[in-house]
Amino acid sequence: xxxxxxxxxxxxxxxxxxxxxxxxxxxxxxxxxxxxxxxxxxxxxxxxxxxxxxxxxxxxxxxxxxxxxxxxxxxxxxxxxxxxxxxxxxxxxxxxxxxxxxxxxxxxxxxxxxxxxxxxxxxxxxxxxxxxxxxxxxxxxxxxxxxxxxxxxxxxxxxxxxxxxxxxxxxxxxxxxxxxxxxxxxxxxxxxxxxxxxxxxxxxxxxxxxxxxxxxxxxxxxxxxxxxxxxxxxxxxxxxxxxxxxxxxxxxxxxxxxxxxxxxxxxxxxxxxxxxxxxxxxxxxxxxxxxxxxxxxxxxxxxxxxxxxxxxxxxxxxxxxxxxxxxxxxxxxxxxxxxxxxxxxxxxxxxxxxxxxxxxx
Length: 361
What we know:
The protein has helices at 5-29, 35-56, 79-104, 120-187, 189-209, 217-235, 260-271, 324-337, and strands at 65-67, 73-76, 215-216, 239-244, 253-254, 278-287, 294-301, 342-347, 353-360. The chain is α+β, with helices and mostly antiparallel strands and 361 residues long. The chain folds into 2 domains: 5-151, no CATH class; 188-360, Histidine kinase-like ATPase, C-terminal domain (Heat Shock Protein 90), CATH 3.30.565.10. The strands form 3 sheets. It has a 5-stranded mixed beta sheet with strand order 4-6-7-9-8, covered by helices on one side. Strands 1-2 form a two-stranded antiparallel sheet. Strand 1 (65-67) and strand 2 form a beta hairpin. Helix 1 packs antiparallel against helix 2 and helix 5 runs antiparallel to helix 6 (217-235). The chain starts with a helix and ends with a strand.
């Protein structure tokens, strides 16, 4: 039986506030009794009521209890909750009244040693306060459990959407690579064989580890290195790349295959149309922000750039910013981080294109 002490302490603070209110009301009802005396009686009765209900629910089979917001045992369901409330009120009234009488004496000195709060009015007040308190905690716990259930459902839906996006992305990458391999087979069979060997090793390492919702950024960079080595077999000296990952960011969790579509985009639309090829640089850095530190991931290439047609009016970004790979990256970022994440695809000042992904650390 695991008792959630932090939750119990929060409940008791609410009980203390209710006891103070009850003490004020009873002092107004009986002006001949001091507030201090009424407060002691109220605290003793309220504490015993709270203790009986708070810890009594752990004696009930958890199958008959609601699940609270923390995933623990909540209020008993049905008649069991009503019985626990009644027992808590009766035990709290008689035991708490007796305890308070021992501590400060009778609430009404005119009645001598007889505990004055044992009267019908005192019992009615205890029943009313206990019922209000029980209903408050029951409603509050049920609302919190419902909110937690909604949050879990939303999280499951987000995870399902991410997996759907990822399952669409993996075949897209594979088909592009196979199309490149097909071209290379007719032009240079030995290099095609080398590329096929690279592809075999890459798929073995990537597909086995891409089923998780997130993986360390270092692993994402390792897969990018494998992919770029694979592409280098086909492009030869026309492809050069640099991967810059600070050591302190290696364990930051990111979605699998987050950067690879951007690297594919850079190769296909930036370097391949350029006769001499070019360079791709993938980097990660930490950036300060008003709402906390952010992770900035950048894929920059020295390819043909966004203004490749040389016209007076800058053309739309490659893929119009909405090609399959770029679109998938945007959707995955929005699903995970909402408006807190951003992705930009812009012309680099020195030529080529720069894709920047930013989201909270």
